[in-house]
Amino acid sequence: MVGCPKPSFTSIAASGDYSETNTCPATLSPGQNCAITVTFTPTVAGTRNGAVTLMDNSLGSPTQTISLTGIGEVNAISFSPASLNFGNQSQNTSSRPMSVTMVNDGAAPVNISSVAVSPADGTFTQTNICPATLSPNQSCTLQVVFTPPDVGAFNETLLVTDNAKNSPQKLRLTGTGIGN
């Protein structure tokens, strides 16, 4: 009686705008399984096709293909952290600057036309080193300072006006003015 060889993977590879990592051993015993994790990183906007191809030593079909489809956003902006809370700050005294990172996590450049705090009353002020165009996967840093003019809670918004989806992008700013 001739025994069947245990399946052995000769390669596992992703194509297109996809990459993969896996927990698959070189030889997969009967009843054993493994996981393949796929990451989608679109290089341009629109529908992006790819595949994960598994090559092994099995006799009838040594190639298995898993088709992949994703949609790359034209442009998208995100903030980290998602909001800034300055806590308590003595009135008429400026806080230390807090930083927020703005990232273009889309597949196309984002053209930034303005960065401003609303309302522009001087309670929260910002400075930034952001370029006029933020390329895909590029980030920039914004610094915000809180100077409460009075005692009480303050809520304002940092607005980034650009050509990305849902413009202007909004970052919530909060802080509480306390007596000296």
Description:
By secondary structure, the chain is mainly β. The protein folds into two domains: 9-72, no CATH class; 77-178, Sandwich (Immunoglobulin-like). It has no helices and 14 strands. The chain has strands spanning 9-15, 18-22, 36-40, 46-56, 63-72, 77-80, 83-90, 98-104, 110-118, 124-128, 133-134, 139-146, 152-162, 169-178. A five-stranded mixed sheet has the order 7-14-13-9-11, with no helix packed on it. Strands 6-8-12-10 form a four-stranded antiparallel sheet, with no helix packed on it. Strands 1-4-5 form a three-stranded antiparallel sheet, with no helix packed on it.
Protein traits:
single chain, 180 residues, mainly beta, Immunoglobulin-like, 0% helix, elongated
